[in-house]
Design a protein that fits this description.
The complex is a heterodimer of chains A (about 350) and B (about 220). Chain A is an alpha+beta fold. Chain A has helices spanning about 5-10, 10-30, 35-75, 80-85, 90-150, 150-180, 195-205, 205-210, 230-245, 290-295, 300-315, 335-340; strands spanning about 190-195, 215-220, 225, 250-260, 260-270, 315-320, 325-335. Chain A contains 12 helices and 7 strands. Chain A has a 5-stranded mixed β-sheet with strand order 2-4-5-7-6. In chain A, strands 1-3 form a two-stranded antiparallel sheet. In chain A, strand 6 and strand 7 form a beta hairpin. Chain A is elongated. The two termini of chain B are about 30 Å apart. Classes of the chains: A alpha+beta (about 350), B alpha/beta (about 220).
Chain lengths: ~350, ~220
């Protein structure tokens, strides 16, 4: 609030004062006062007016400054109404009252939306758990079918298994998306052998990967402290992504390395690769790129979810690629000196 | 004697298929349809392992697990569609031996059941012995024995033979062999399988065994 703007705001009042001064001067002149006295009276008036203006300006400035600071500091700005400094002024009190009422309705609206969202999320989670029963049923039927029936039927059961596995993967995406907000609520950090997790994920998708004639090499010798379930999901997405954009003789390599600030797990494939101009955007929601549009349906959700979960888990994720040759997706697990017990660069957790 | 497994699962399809799966894997299986007296049943039937669903009509698997624990020390594996980490922790704390999330690939399920059974085995199990046309597969030493001379095998070759020896005289589809290998954490494609088979044949020929592995184009291999 500048002084200039303040004066402009008070211009009507100033005009009133000045016109009153003129009228008074005229009146005194007519009633025969001497000019010196008139000037003295007007000067005193002017001084009092100036003092009043300055004091008012300062008090208003202070008030709004405090309010502005509160607005800066508070993390929920819609709570301003509750926090405005007390003021004896009628206007301030009226405004504060109105802001409060308006804020209250915003808060109510927020609560309602939040509640809707929560109940929707709970429903989705419940639904995912329900749908897993029939998926399990189908997968068991297929598994038994593949062992016992004739050659042709086996093929049919295999196809069914593959499709069922795809359904499971999509359903998992829904579940993890719904949960990604609150990773911390569903967390079980323990020492995790990355090789085991990688093998588990490959095994789970074995029919899909075999169908694409994929060969995989796992060379993970490091263990990290993290949540197995989430890592398995992230790795699952990464592997399925690689499988989607594979070449004619696809090879997946999964290996870990110990770098200065942690363990890095890399998934390398020899697929179509990512164009350099797409590289910074592959983790964006809904980004499919040229590769995605030519290939199978791409949702643009898989890698987005990976990054989102990685952020929540404190894991770094990055991608590098040479189009037509290779693509590397890396997960970087920070190894803190707190966990490994002293030396930040300790190789204790190398088996 | 084969191990006996008690399945406590409310979904009829899953129960039936699990029973079939486990029976195919040579276990004896009991799958009650009524969950009123599971602890009593567990006591009477004396199973070697209990597969327990968590969400059961009228009661929770966790509570059931505690009731069973009061009577017996039978190993319990939770099998559930719930994916919450807290549930898993709960399951372990209530006395479960393992916790498997549905849907779980059947080979993994069998492997984990076998692992728990092995850990809690009441008697030593003898590894099965495979012999065909005088060629013996020695699993513990990872070799083939022919005329008292061992032929060393790699891990992959071992797994291939293990599968072929299980059904002597029957063709095993290439896809099936590849799947079997993937389930044993050997992630190869079918061209690589051909390479392995060729190498195996070479190995057998140099040891003096000819035409042991028979190929049928488009179908697979047999011994």
């Amino acid at each position: 609030m500048s002084f200039h703007a303040f004066l402009k705001d008070k211009s009507l009042l100033l005009i009133l004062h000045f016109s009153c001064m003129c009228v008074l001067a005229g009146f005194l002149q007519v009633t025969g006062y001497r000019s010196f006295n008139i000037i003295l009276i007007l000067a005193v008036w002017l001084i009092i007016l100036c003092c009043w203006i300055i004091v008012l300006y300062r008090s208003r400035k202070k008030y709004f400054h405090t309010a502005g600071q509160i607005l800066e500091q508070v993390d929920q700005r819609y709570l301003l109404g509750e926090l405005l400094p007390d003021s004896y002024r009628l206007e301030d009190r009226l405004y504060r009252d109105m802001i409060r009422r308006s804020n209250k309705s915003v808060i109510e609206q927020l609560r309602r939306v939040e509640q809707d969202r929560r109940s929707y999320k709970e429903y989705i989670e419940g639904w995912v758990h329900e749908i897993k029963a029939p998926i399990t049923g189908i997968s068991l039927v297929c598994e038994n079918g593949r062992k016992t029936s004739s050659f042709l039927e086996k093929e049919a059961f295999r196809t069914l298994s593959i499709e069922n596995q795809k359904i499971e993967n999509y359903v998992d995406m829904v579940l993890y998306y719904a949960r990604s907000e609150e990773v911390y609520k569903d967390y079980l950090i323990r020492e995790t052998d990355l090789g085991d997790v990688a093998a588990q994920v490959l095994e789970k998708n074995c029919l899909i990967l075999i169908q694409k004639h994929i060969r995989a090499e796992v060379n993970c010798t490091h263990t990290v402290f993290t949540d197995q379930k989430w890592i398995a999901f992230i790795l699952n997405q990464m592997i399925l992504n690689s499988a989607k954009y594979c070449c004619d003789t696809p090879v997946l390599q999964i290996y870990t390395e110990h770098k200065c600030n942690g363990v890095v797990l890399t998934l390398e494939d020899n697929g179509t690769g990512i164009r350099p101009q797409d590289l910074p955007r592959i983790f964006e929601k809904g980004f499919t790129g040229a590769g995605g549009r030519d290939h199978e349906r791409a949702t643009g959700m898989g890698l987005y979810l990976c990054r989102r979960l990685c952020q929540r888990l404190g894991i770094g994720i990055s991608a590098d690629s040479c189009p037509g040759k290779w693509t590397k997706l890396s997960l970087e697990f920070p190894v803190s000196s707190f966990i490994t017990g002293g030396e930040p660069l300790s190789f204790e957790n190398v088996r | 004697m084969n191990s006996k497994i008690l399945i406590v699962e409310d979904d009829a399809v899953i129960r039936r298929e699990l029973k079939l799966l486990l029976e195919n894997a040579m276990y004896r299986v009991a799958a009650p349809e009524d969950f009123e007296d599971i602890p009593v049943l567990a006591d009477r039937e004396e199973p070697d392992l209990i597969l327990l669903d968590v969400n059961l009509p009228g009661c929770s698997g966790f509570d059931l697990c505690m009731d069973i624990r009061e009577k017996t020390d039978t190993p319990i594996i939770f099998l559930t569609g719930r994916t919450d980490s807290m549930d898993e922790l709960n399951g372990m704390l209530k006395g479960g031996d393992d916790y498997i999330r549905k849907p779980c690939p059947a080979p993994l399920l069998l492997a984990r059941i076998a692992a728990v059974l092995k850990r809690t085995a009441r008697q030593e199990s003898v590894p099965p012995c495979f012999v065909k046309d005088g060629v013996r597969l020695d699993i513990s030493r990872c070799c083939l024995i022919w005329k008292d001379a061992p032929i060393d095998l790699t891990r992959t070759e071992m797994k291939i033979f293990h599968r072929l020896f299980q059904t002597p005289g029957e063709f095993v589809a290439r896809a099936e062999l590849v799947e079997e290998l993937w389930e044993n954490q050997i992630f190869i494609d079918d061209n690589t399988l051909s390479v392995h088979i060729t190498r195996l044949r070479e190995k057998l020929r140099s040891a003096g065994i000819t035409d042991f592995i028979e190929t049928k184009r488009g179908l697979g291999y047999r011994i």
